[in-house]
Amino acid sequence: MLADIQKNPWRVLLAINAAVIVGVFIHKILLPPYVPYIHLLVDYHFGFIKRALIGAIVALFTDKVPVWLVFAISGAAWLVTLGLFLRLFQKTFGFSNKTLPLFVLIAGSPYFLKNFMHTLGHFDIYGCVFALILLLIPAGSLLFVATAALFAIILVLIHHIHLLMYVPTIITIVGIRHYLGHGITRTNIAFGFAALLCVSALFLAAQFLGTMPIPEADFLAYLKSRMADPSRTSLLQFSYIWYQPLSKEVSDTWKWLPHNMLGLPVFALLLWLHTPLWRYFADLIAALASKLHRRLVIAALTGISLAYLIMFAMVFDYSRWMSNWAVCMFLILHAVKTLPAARETALIPPDDKRTNIFGLVLTLIPRVGIVRPF
Q1: Beta carbons of 332 and 300 less than 8 angstroms apart
Q2: Given phi > 0 = left and psi -120 to 50 = alpha, else beta, which region is 94?
Q3: Which DSSP letter does residue 269 get?
Q4: Helix-then-strand count for the chain, H and E
Q5: Which of 8, 129, 275, 286 has its CA 20 to 30 A from that of 245?
């Protein structure tokens, strides 16, 4: 048995990852859910406002919101994400000893499931869920494009920053699976362009017209009326985000930029530890049969990365943005695997010592964090 472990340690790394996730969950539920909780309280009671869709849905079922509901909803979303990813990996690569290193490097990455566990209640995971669904459902008809547009609209209503965070990845998945996979016509081009205009218009409305229309004191009074325990006023300390203009967010981000930039070496180290995965992704793109497909995929990855650079300049939750960028790369990797290839791409070897060390280190890192690394 020891010889088998030494020959293929990836099963052990998988078990360690599972234990780490449990530990992150236990740690998370002991922390006050400040931002996630207040998002469950805010709805459309005072008209159309930004960041209110989840709270509006919660309001359909209960007038009083207990704190545990944050973990119930976000925990369910995390389990759905896990289930969808397992199904996607099985569909794309299958489960075997040969694919185990690839699976562990993605599923066990501190960017992915472990960080989603650490950020339970935040809105990032919903973009991943919708992208996973789009990677699994049939993509041959305009219904697929319409579904993607609906998902993008929902994400912008959850939080308008999704236009930069996951909508570009959704557009890329639609482009790869529908337009490159099933052909381009005037009809589907026009439909896709109209859908993009609708999503963009909604984003502008949320960004510039979605400010809370009442004084903050009245807003806080309403939030307290929805709390199961109104005495926990500390949970409302982030109510200002419904009043803060974009200029203020950008100003705060640049004010803290020198301090937060100290985390860049850590981000660079984490990216380097994923080298076997990035190398496989690059080989996958290079193996595509069509030169046009290769160029379009590279252009899409560049566009997604530029969207994240804009986010870095606007809001300083750098660890979250870095983690979600990596998740988007993982998702696009699966989409690229569906395109016609001129040759088979060699999988990540399970017996390479350097890769094994990288896998062990990534396994032991519990999460990346929210603002600064760890």
Answers
A1: yes
A2: left
A3: H
A4: 20, 0
A5: 129
Query: Euclidean distance between the first and final Cα of the chain, in Å?
Result: 35
- The C-alpha R_g of the chain, in whole angstroms, comes to 21
Sort residue 49 into left (φ over 0), alpha (ψ -120 to 50) or beta. beta
- Angle of helix 264-273 relative to helix 318-336, nearest 10 degrees, comes to 20
pLDDT 10s per residue in the chain (374 long)? 344 455 678 999 999 999 999 999 999 988 888 889 999 999 999 999 999 999 999 999 999 999 999 999 999 999 999 999 999 999 999 999 999 999 999 999 999 999 999 999 999 999 999 999 999 999 999 999 999 999 999 999 999 999 999 999 999 999 999 999 999 999 999 999 999 999 999 999 998 888 889 999 999 999 999 999 999 999 998 898 898 888 888 888 888 888 877 888 999 999 999 999 999 999 999 999 999 999 999 999 999 999 999 998 888 888 999 999 999 999 999 999 999 999 999 999 988 899 999 999 999 999 998 877 87
